[in-house]
């Protein structure tokens, strides 16, 4: 199967070489990898140029957005600009972070899943991070049928059905909700262990961490589901502050009549899906 990759890059010099090296070692190589250098000033461009010179599958795109390493808008803006350089001659497409190391068979296994089941819309492995003892341990704060934003791959038909990636915080949740809305399933594979070199959230500032509630509003969660989801997040983070940040973000978005990122019909599906999951967990 043929596939493309797009990698947004902002000051990733400490990790980028390891990342690109793991792509070159794949048992199933991509047709093309777009390396989107978004306002880097740390030496990332030197590494990008090296790989583009040494291997024709790499192509550089330089853009200038904000200097902030914000989730959502900056990353997906970079992805969308890179994706615009690609044609439609692919079976699946991937969005990768630049601070991960892939196992050598990663995309061979991903391709097998897509090939064997056309109902799969989104596929991926699991993220592992080093703990204080130096051991690689699973870091997966959501349900096991969720693919982390750092390692997303989409079948061509699913990617087109959901309209690509939304340029907002929460993009890596709404993509899976919309995939399900269109009848696709999410496939994860526990054998695919991806090393994440920078602990989750370390690059994001306080402002970024206060946008979750706004994202839940724009996905039409409604007040009650947002409250439940925020309580769950606060419990996992052991921080009541994250609950209040979420709810303030939701209420401010409601007051400002912030635009939704899903249709009313999609919103109905999303709320029903969330309530079904909540009900199942209560019964369990």
TrEMBL record:
<dbReference type="GO" id="GO:0016758">
    <property type="term" value="F:hexosyltransferase activity"/>
</dbReference>
<keyword id="KW-0808">Transferase</keyword>
<dbReference type="Pfam" id="PF00535">
    <property type="entry name" value="Glycos_transf_2"/>
</dbReference>
<feature type="domain" description="Glycosyltransferase 2-like">
    <location>
        <begin position="5"/>
        <end position="142"/>
    </location>
</feature>
<dbReference type="InterPro" id="IPR029044">
    <property type="entry name" value="Nucleotide-diphossugar_trans"/>
</dbReference>
<dbReference type="InterPro" id="IPR001173">
    <property type="entry name" value="Glyco_trans_2-like"/>
</dbReference>
<protein>
    <submittedName>
        <fullName>Glycosyl transferase family 2</fullName>
    </submittedName>
</protein>
């Amino acid at each position: 199967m043929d596939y493309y990759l797009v990698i947004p890059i902002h000051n990733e010099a400490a990790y980028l070489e390891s990342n690109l090296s793991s792509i070159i070692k794949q048992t199933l190589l991509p047709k093309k990898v777009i390396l989107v250098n978004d306002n880097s000033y740390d030496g990332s461009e030197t590494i990008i140029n090296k790989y583009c010179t040494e291997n024709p599958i790499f192509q550089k795109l330089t853009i200038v957005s904000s200097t902030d390493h914000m989730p959502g808008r900056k990353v997906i803006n970079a992805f969308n600009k890179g994706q615009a350089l690609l044609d439609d001659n692919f079976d699946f497409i991937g969005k990768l972070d630049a601070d991960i190391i892939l196992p050598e068979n990663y995309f061979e296994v991903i391709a097998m899943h897509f090939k064997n089941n056309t109902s799969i819309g989104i596929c991926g492995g699991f993220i592992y991070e080093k703990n204080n003892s130096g051991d690689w341990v699973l870091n997966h704060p959501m349900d096991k049928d969720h693919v982390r934003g750092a390692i997303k791959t989409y079948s061509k038909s699913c990617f087109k059905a959901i309209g690509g990636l939304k340029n907002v915080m929460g993009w890596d949740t709404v993509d899976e909700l919309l995939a399900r809305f269109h009848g696709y399933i999410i496939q994860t594979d526990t054998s695919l262990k991806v090393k994440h070199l920078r602990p989750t959230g370390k690059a994001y500032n306080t402002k970024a961490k206060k946008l979750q509630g706004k994202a839940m509003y724009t996905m039409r969660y409604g007040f009650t589901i947002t409250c439940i989801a925020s309580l769950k997040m606060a419990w996992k983070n052991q921080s009541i502050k994250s609950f209040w940040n979420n709810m303030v973000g939701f209420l401010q978005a409601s007051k400002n009549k912030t635009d939704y990122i899903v249709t009313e019909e999609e919103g109905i599906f999303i709320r029903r899906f969330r309530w079904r999951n909540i009900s199942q967990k209560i019964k369990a």
